[in-house]
Write a structure and sequence with these properties.
Blueprint (H helix, E strand, L loop, with lengths): L1 E6 L2 E6 L6 H7 L18 E4 L2 E4 L5 H4 L3 E3 L1 H4 L7 H9 L8 H14 L5 H7 L11 H17 L2
Parallel strand pairs: 1-5
Antiparallel strand pairs: 1-2, 3-4, 3-5
């Protein structure tokens, strides 16, 4: 099966099996920033934006994502042009092994687009679907708060 996927602002014609999840299609075609953690929709490592909403790409059949806007963490920012969220995470030490970081970046981006000044409780609720085995979440929450402040001040 072939389909057109709009990923990080570019159209790609990709071949895939009808049974493939969006996660597998993305990874098979080089979007390795989308991580495969649990493959059950519980860890958030594979989180992407699909038409502006956070989804666990392991729970979405690729065929249902054809023609929709898909944004990965690299579509939010990359090494050459990091987003304030990514900068804040790095500065406060919210990144340890880094495996879960792309999913946290996507979920944080979604949160701050809808709520630029979240409370700590709102941050915890927004990140509830993302699991981290390294940080203990304290630094991640600090990173979200710092990103929120910077984005408000910079009008990002």
């Amino acid at each position: 099966m072939k389909g057109i996927f709009r990923i990080n602002g570019r159209d790609y014609e990709l071949e895939f099996d009808p049974r493939d999840t969006l996660l597998h299609v993305l990874r098979q075609h080089g979007f390795t920033e989308v991580k495969e953690g649990c493959s059950e929709g519980t860890c958030g490592a594979c989180a992407v934006l699909l038409d502006g909403r956070v989804v666990n790409s392991c729970m979405v059949f690729a065929a249902t994502a054809m023609g929709k806007e898909i944004v990965t963490s690299k579509g939010i920012g990359d090494q050459n042009n990091p987003h304030p969220i990514q900068q804040a995470f790095a500065e406060v030490g919210a990144v340890q092994c880094g495996f879960c970081t792309p999913g946290f970046v996507v979920s944080t981006f979604y949160l701050l687009q809808r709520n630029p000044d979240p409370t700590e409780e709102e941050i915890k609720q927004a990140l509830d679907g993302n699991l981290c085995r390294c940080t203990g979440y304290v630094k991640i929450i600090e990173g979200v708060k710092l990103a929120s402040e910077r984005m408000k001040n910079e009008k990002v």
